[in-house]
């Protein structure tokens, strides 16, 4: 059972998402928050698997709420999905830096919403192609002087190759096809890389790949 928490200051938005998610046998809505402060407090109290977080809320915005949740060692298992009005929201870069595992547009189709919650709950990143393009554009502007991370020193050549493909936005199946591996082997490589790099999920792995200079904007 995936335990989800909804954080949005619009009651109708929460009700709409709840009606979709609560109807699934593997998803349970355990709480609702109307602002960022309440979202953080309920997350600490209820320990959901996934928080669907509106980025613009009173008292505390979704960006800072995400940062506080991700920064709490007791909430290491919690994943945050940012809810945006437009898929090219200006907050994309900042939200990923804060630790969000992905994005969903508020007018997304019900099946996409369900898929997104399930993807993030199992530890994968949820980055639509348009989000990935925006992210790469942000890196092109911001990452002028990469800072090589000692966390990547332990990676093998194969793991570095796999990490580059993760940063390109490829799924495990696509990585397997590109490198002529089994999907299980590709998944194992990605899991080991995340462990060595000490990151929560694929979204954070993409951030690290760019900021360390392993991948440069324009390569992908």
Number of separate structural domains: 2
Distance N to C terminus: 37 Å
Order of helices and strands: EHEHEHEHEHHHHHH
Radius of gyration: 17 Å
Helix count from the secondary structure assignment? 10
Q: What proportion strand? A: 5-15%
**Main sheet: strand order:** 2-1-3-4-5
CATH class of the largest domain: Alpha Beta
Average pLDDT reading? 85
CATH names the topology of the largest domain as: Rossmann fold
Structural features, described:
This protein is an alpha/beta fold and 220 residues long. It has two domains: 2-137, Response regulator (Rossmann fold); 146-211, Orthogonal Bundle (Arc Repressor Mutant, subunit A), CATH 1.10.10.10. 49% of the residues lie in helices and 13% in strands. It has helices at residues 11-21, 36-46, 62-70, 92-98, 110-121, 129-142, 157-167, 172-179, 183-197, 202-211; strands at 2-7, 27-33, 50-54, 79-84, 102-105. Strands 2-1-3-4-5 form a five-stranded parallel beta sheet, with helices on both faces. Strand 3, helix 3 (62-70) and strand 4 form a beta-alpha-beta unit. Helix 2 (36-46) runs parallel beside helix 3 and helix 7 (157-167) packs across helix 9 (183-197). The chain starts with a strand and ends in a 9-residue tail after the last helix. 36% of the residues are buried. The model has no long low-confidence stretch (mean pLDDT 85).
């Amino acid at each position: 059972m995936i335990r989800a928490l909804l954080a949005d200051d619009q009651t109708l938005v929460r009700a709409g998402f709840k009606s979709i998610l609560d109807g699934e046998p593997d998803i349970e809505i355990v709480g609702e928050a109307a602002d960022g402060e309440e979202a953080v407090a309920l997350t600490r109290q209820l320990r959901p698997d996934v928080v669907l977080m509106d980025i613009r809320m009173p008292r505390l915005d979704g960006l800072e709420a995400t940062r506080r949740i991700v920064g709490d060692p007791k909430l290491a298992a919690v994943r945050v999905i940012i809810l945006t009005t437009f898929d090219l929201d200006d907050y994309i870069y900042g939200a990923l830096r804060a630790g969000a595992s992905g994005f969903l547009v508020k007018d997304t189709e019900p099946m996409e919403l369900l898929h997104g919650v399930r993807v993030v709950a199992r530890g994968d990143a949820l980055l639509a192609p348009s989000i990935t393009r925006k992210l790469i554009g942000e890196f092109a502007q911001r990452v002028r002087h990469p800072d090589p991370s000692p966390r990547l020193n332990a990676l093998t050549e194969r793991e570095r190759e796999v990490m580059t493909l993760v940063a390109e936005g490829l799924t495990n199946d696509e990585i397997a096809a590109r490198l002529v591996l089994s999907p299980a082997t590709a998944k194992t490589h990605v899991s080991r890389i995340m462990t060595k790099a000490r990151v929560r999920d694929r979204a954070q792995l993409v951030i690290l790949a760019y900021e360390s200079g392993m991948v440069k904007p324009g390569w992908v």
